[in-house]
């Protein structure tokens, strides 16, 4: 037997929303958290002045973190490693997986620019010893070195390693590690809250017809589908 859903009118829904007390200070902290985590240092500074919301970390460290991220994204991996060590040497000392991925990215950059002999020497001296200690590292190393076996490396089975997305992946991993070392969340809270909103709406859809937010960019309430 089918049961009809409860219908909640727009007026009733808006009244329920108004009854929820959300402090402006909490909203400001949410915005600041996003700006800091994503590295928008100028916007964070302006928001600090305008809202009086103090960031959880020194904004100067954002500039340093973004410099590391930019270096990886542009393929200057050795420069990124030096910058990370200047920030905090323990980040790489205590994270062998991150250090391996940075060294792997250095190898990828050598292959990208056709420096075959240098790439082989680097793989043998810097990465092979780590592969002997970790099976996952060895498999990743083998995939990377396999690029050298193809004339057109970009279109080989492992060609995705030469995509910009691989640089972005490595840069994101470094960014998260730096944030963690600063006792800051590696991911901003705002996207998680939006995912929670979508999940909650999906759960409610089975029980009621209500003014739904279909476009998160505008947060416009749509009339309930009856």
Automatic annotation (TrEMBL):
Domain of life assignment? Eukaryota
* Pfam families the record matches: CTLH, LisH
InterPro entries in the record, alphabetically?
CRA_dom (IPR013144), CTLH/CRA (IPR024964), CTLH_C (IPR006595), LisH (IPR006594), Ubq-SigPath_Reg (IPR050618)
The residue ranges of the CTLH domain are: 61-118
The protein in question is named CTLH domain-containing protein
């Amino acid at each position: 037997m089918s049961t009809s859903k409860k219908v909640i009118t727009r007026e009733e829904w808006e009244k329920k929303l108004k009854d929820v007390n959300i402090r402006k200070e909490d909203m400001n902290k949410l915005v600041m958290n996003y700006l800091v985590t994503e590295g928008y240092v100028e916007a964070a500074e302006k928001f600090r002045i305008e809202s009086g919301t103090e960031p959880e970390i020194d904004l100067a460290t954002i500039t340093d973190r973004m410099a590391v991220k930019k270096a990886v994204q542009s393929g200057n991996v050795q420069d990124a490693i030096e910058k990370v060590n200047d920030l905090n040497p323990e980040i790489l000392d205590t994270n062998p997986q991150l250090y391996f991925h940075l060294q792997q990215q250095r190898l990828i950059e050598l292959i990208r620019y056709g420096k075959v002999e240098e790439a082989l020497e680097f793989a043998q001296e810097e990465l092979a010893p780590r592969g002997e200690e970790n099976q996952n590292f060895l498999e990743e190393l083998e995939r990377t070195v396999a690029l050298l076996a193809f004339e057109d490396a970009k279109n080989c089975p492992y060609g995705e390693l030469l995509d910009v997305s691989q640089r972005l992946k490595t840069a994101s991993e470094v960014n998260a590690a730096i944030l963690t070392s600063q006792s800051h969340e590696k991911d901003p809270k705002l996207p998680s809250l939006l995912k929670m909103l979508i999940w909650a709406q999906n759960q409610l859809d089975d029980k009621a017809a209500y003014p739904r937010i279909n476009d998160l960019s505008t947060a416009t309430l749509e009339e309930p589908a009856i």
